[in-house]
Amino acid sequence: MPELPExxxxxxxxxxxxSGRILRGLQVRDPKLAHxxxxxxxxxxxxxxxxxxxxxxxxxxxxxGEAVRGWLAVHLRMTGRLLLVEEGEPEPAPAxxxxxxxxxxxxFADTRRFGTVDWLTGPAELAPPGLDPFDPACTPAALAELAxxxxxxxxxxxxxxxxxxxxxxxxxxxxxxxxxxxxWRAAGNLELAQWRLLHREMRRILRLAIKNCGTTFSDFQxxxxxxxxxxxxxxxxxxxxxxxxxxxAIVQRETQAQRGSWWCPGCQE
Length: 269
Ligand SMILES: [Zn+2]
Fold this sequence. Notes:
6 helices, 2 domains, 4-stranded antiparallel sheet, alpha+beta, elongated, Helicase, Ruva Protein, domain 3, binds zinc ion, 5-stranded antiparallel sheet, N-terminal domain of MutM-like DNA repair proteins
């Protein structure tokens, strides 16, 4: 599933390519997206504004002159992809939704059909469910306060999208390794200095991943159909049995809340 860096990668690419294009029509090709049908007529002629990210959603504003008519919010989930097809190019995959533009088309392809597209009309609906790691309000002190008295293991706590949004399994494993923190330790029992380190490593790793267009893993492709290159930089995720690049101990994989946790018992406490 795409995490924050993959969604940010897609958003930056789409913004560069799509912002300013005019919507000519909207074709709903999957009955699960039938709630968008009524928009088809009313949105023709609107212009795509600056594309941005909210949590793990891609936000496509549709504007009418200076006014915003609303926002299409796309959640890619497991296999969703937003693909720009230029004039005269064939469609590379079956699409659930097609935005016909003055130049080219934007397709929402999604083989497993878990992705969602919603039409939002109020700014309140745009807010992500939890703190965004790059939001200025997301400080080490804010994290410490949120986690006060939390008994949940740190890893599960960080994965909860209603607290911090955009982090998934891969980046949480990497962030915990970089911060020398065990995925099993209770979230409420970190010192402020440890939250500072975790906060710094979280932003550093996410920035690095964004710079490298996300992680290579099955199903993720950016809007050009390319895979990211952050996968080569993973320190523990998917590396069970290998030596930890920092201390040389053997990286372990354990199941935690039904998901794999990769970590190094030698240097994560
Ligand atoms: Zn280690």
